[in-house]
């Protein structure tokens, strides 16, 4: 039977995300640990984002802005936004981050992954009138009373390794992966713009992702 | 999945993926893994200098931003067997079925340049008329199940059919089978009569 999971197998690469939709504790507030029990602190980004989410901390938002806004501008220009429009998109995305902060869950997505998806959704909304169908949100805020600090940290580490792995790809492979996630890659478009035959592109994407996957697997076996 | 995350999948297929992700935990995990890869690309991208006032503009807008009505956070809830993305495509209303012959009914949920997505209601034990595909067809089972020459499909399963497959999907006995089917091209029915009727039913 065919299933909709090309390229990556979830059990090999996916972070051990907490997907349980189990009991909800009434009246308990969600305490926010800032480090794990063995004293390892979360990344700066995660701490900023938690302060934004839980304390509506504008100074933390300013720091998050300084880190991500210039990257977002580079990102939206690379994905085809006109330079004049790019800053409007950056503004929309950063304001969405502020507004949607209550949806941020560090056990499921690292800050960069979360902002990436908001940015892509915004660009897709602009490109298409009706936007794109989105999966049902998991209602983690209501279902888990206490965040699992170990899970947050493990996800941060895995995402860091993924980023380092991306940096070690050869330039061709890295460019392909970047194009795919910048939304430039409908397979046939890439064939047109790069002159590469489709088979080559697909195998390069696979090779790149496969290598990413092995890097992650190695990490878990250590 | 990477194309869905990056938003390059045709809309009818994106609807199937979003619906499937809403039903399947391992694909949800896969979806999140691809977001992580997207996040890694964002972290690594070359920065572009911002114009001087952007920071002040955004920080100054924070207090106003909270009260904005944000359609993205108002998602359409699941209704019975229909996950949120399907209900959103139906604009929150129950499907309006139209008979397409042989007891099979359909409800078109999305049609556009990029193809179409429809709900199919196949009575238990009954076949859908034999057809092949001009392009790719994804069929996601929402209730019941069906079989064809390629295998058996249960709730949550997705069949991927390309233009070479001529098949007669047959619903399992028991519950009626309800599917979400998406194509990027019109289906071609093999029999002459269905072929004539096809434009009328917009299959």
Describe the structure.
The complex is a heterodimer of chains A (222) and B (203). Chain A has helices spanning 10-13, 44-55, 58-78, 83-99, 111-127, 140-143, 149-168, 171-181, 187-194, 198-221. By secondary structure, chain A is an all-alpha fold. Chain B is α+β, with helices and mostly antiparallel strands and 203 residues long. Chain B has one domain: Jelly Rolls, CATH 2.60.120. Helix content of chain B is 32%, strand content 25%. Chain B contains seven helices and eleven strands. Chain B starts with a helix and ends with a helix.
Question: Which key phrases capture this entry?
Answer:
heterodimer; A: 222 residues; mainly alpha; Rna Polymerase Sigma Factor, Chain: A; Arc Repressor Mutant, subunit A; B: 203 residues; alpha+beta; Jelly Rolls; six-stranded antiparallel sheet; three-stranded antiparallel sheet; 7 helices; 32% helix; disordered C terminus
State the low-pLDDT regions of chain B, or none: 187-203
Order of helices and strands of chain A: HHHHHHHHHH
Number of E-state strands of chain B: 11
- Assembly level: heterodimer
Total of domains of chain B: 1
Helical region count of chain B? 7
Shape assignment of chain A: globular
Tell me, what is the CATH class of chain B? Mainly Beta
CATH architecture of chain B: Sandwich
Show unreliable segments of chain A: 1-31, 140-145, 193-198
Shape of chain B: elongated
The neighbouring-strand order within the major sheet of chain B is: 1-2-3-10-5-8
> What is the arithmetic mean of pLDDT of chain B?
79
Proportion of residues in β-strands of chain B: 15-25%
What fraction of the residues of chain A are assigned to beta strands by DSSP? under 5%
CATH architecture title of the domain at 42-133 in chain A: Orthogonal Bundle
- Name of the level-1 CATH class of the domain at 42-133 in chain A: Mainly Alpha
Question: Which fold does the CATH topology of chain B refer to?
Answer: Jelly Rolls
Radius of gyration computed on alpha carbons of chain B: 21 Å
Instruction: Note the main sheet of chain A.
Output: none
Rg from alpha-carbon coordinates of chain A? 19 Å
């Amino acid at each position: 039977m065919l299933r909709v999971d090309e390229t990556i197998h979830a059990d090999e690469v996916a972070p051990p995300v907490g997907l349980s939709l189990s009991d909800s504790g009434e009246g308990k507030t969600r305490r926010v640990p800032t480090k794990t029990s063995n004293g390892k602190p979360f990344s700066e980004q995660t701490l900023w984002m938690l302060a934004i989410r839980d304390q509506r901390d504008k100074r933390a938002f300013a720091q998050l802005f300084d880190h991500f806004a210039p990257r977002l501008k580079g990102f939206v220009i690379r994905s085809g936004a006109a330079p004049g429009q790019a800053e409007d998109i950056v503004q929309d995305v950063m304001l969405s981050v502020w507004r949607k902060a209550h949806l941020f869950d560090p056990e499921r997505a690292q800050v960069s992954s979360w902002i990436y998806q908001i940015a892509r959704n915004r660009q897709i909304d602009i490109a298409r009138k009706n936007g794109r169908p989105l999966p049902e949100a998991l209602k983690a805020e209501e279902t888990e009373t206490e965040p699992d600090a170990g899970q947050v940290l493990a996800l941060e580490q895995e995402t860091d390794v993924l980023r380092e792995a991306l940096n070690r790809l050869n330039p061709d492979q890295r460019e392909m992966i970047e194009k795919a996630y910048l939304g430039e890659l409908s397979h046939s478009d890439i064939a047109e713009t790069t002159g590469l035959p489709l088979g080559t592109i697909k195998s390069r994407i696979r090779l790149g992702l496969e290598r990413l996957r092995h890097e992650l697997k190695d990490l878990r076996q250590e | 999945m990477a194309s869905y995350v990056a938003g390059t999948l045709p809309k009818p297929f994106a609807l199937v993926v979003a619906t499937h992700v809403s039903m399947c935990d391992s694909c949800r995990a896969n979806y999140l893994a691809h977001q992580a890869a997207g996040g890694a690309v964002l972290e690594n991208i070359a920065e572009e200098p911002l114009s001087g006032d952007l920071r002040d503009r955004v920080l100054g807008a924070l207090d106003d931003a909270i009260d904005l009505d944000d359609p993205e956070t108002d998602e359409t809830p699941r209704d019975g067997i229909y996950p949120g993305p399907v209900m959103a495509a139906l604009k929150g209303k129950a499907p309006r079925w139209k008979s397409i012959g042989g007891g099979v009914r359909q409800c078109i949920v999305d049609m556009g340049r990029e193809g179409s997505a429809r709900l199919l209601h196949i009575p238990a034990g009954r076949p859908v008329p034999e057809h092949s595909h001009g392009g790719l067809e994804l069929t996601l089972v929402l209730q019941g199940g069906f079989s064809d020459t390629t295998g058996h499909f249960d709730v949550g399963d997705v069949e991927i059919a390309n233009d070479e497959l001529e098949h007669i999907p047959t619903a399992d006995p028991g519950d009626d089978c309800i599917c979400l089917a998406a194509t990027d091209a019109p289906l071609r029915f093999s029999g002459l009569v269905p072929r004539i009727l096809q434009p009328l039913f917009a299959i």
